[in-house]
Amino acid sequence: MKAGTASSGRPQKPQESENGDIVMRTMAKIAIINLKGGVGKSVTAYNLACLLAEIWSRRVLVMDLDKQGNTTKFFNRFAYGRKTMGDVLTLNAKMQDVIMQTDFEHVDLAPSNMEMLLANKNVMLDVLRPQWDRLRKALDTIHNDYDYCIIDCPPDIDMATVNALAAADWVIIPVDCDEWAMDGMSEICEQVNAIRDAYNPQLEVMGVLATKYTRGRYSVDTINKIASMDLPAFRNPDNSILRINYSVKVKEAKARHLPVHKVCRNIKTSAQYKALAQLVKKCVEGE
Fold this sequence. Notes:
By secondary structure, the chain is an alpha/beta fold. It has helices spanning 41-56, 70-74, 85-89, 95-98, 115-125, 134-140, 159-167, 185-198, 217-228, 248-255, 260-263, 268-285, and strands at 15-16, 22-23, 28-32, 60-64, 100-101, 107-110, 148-152, 170-176, 204-213, 243-245. Strands 5-6-4-7-3-8-9-10 form an eight-stranded mixed beta sheet, with helices on both faces. The protein has a two-stranded antiparallel sheet with strand order 1-2.
């Protein structure tokens, strides 16, 4: 993985503001995507966001594009009757209309709910206006407000996903370590390549992330497959594949609406998410 540079239009190294806060010059946009559900997209999104904010005081916007709204539910902001990302995609709201503060310092949320399903259909039917760059243009209006935008994508190739990839700098692909771990991987790669060729030439895969690892045969097989892929993967300092262990503490933390490190700092899963955050920060900001 390599850090962005000024010449590529990527986020640059952080600067110190007049009040002493460390801020980025350009918001880094990271889409978390897999066409399967239950692989840890939402868990990765909110744990990564909270760690970047807490450890390094980065300003993070978490964007929920999944109609199920699991990330929105984690932050206790799931509701109907107010503006969401569905309204941004249909051009009925601006980013400033939907962003909400969370209970975590430096972390804001752009929420979602089941109305996203209708929003996707409406975008597809709206053929008189550009459909693919709505999220990019919306994020351009707040690019100085945040250091990171973490985008939780739905398990579909819909207009929300297309917009996310067209707007993003990087892609993280969580892969759960089970028998069907690699299902849909070729379709993800095809979609990323298609969006890169048509709309976003700077789009890169930051890494494949192994999640829900156990000591079983399928987990070992998945790690071996990730290690042999052409795609970049998140790796430990010894070059082994970084894995997020399966732990009941993850479910416990989710039920308490807290990131894993707030519930149990001493388990391997907590350390593994911190390692992920360090790798993401290194990729975006450099050493």
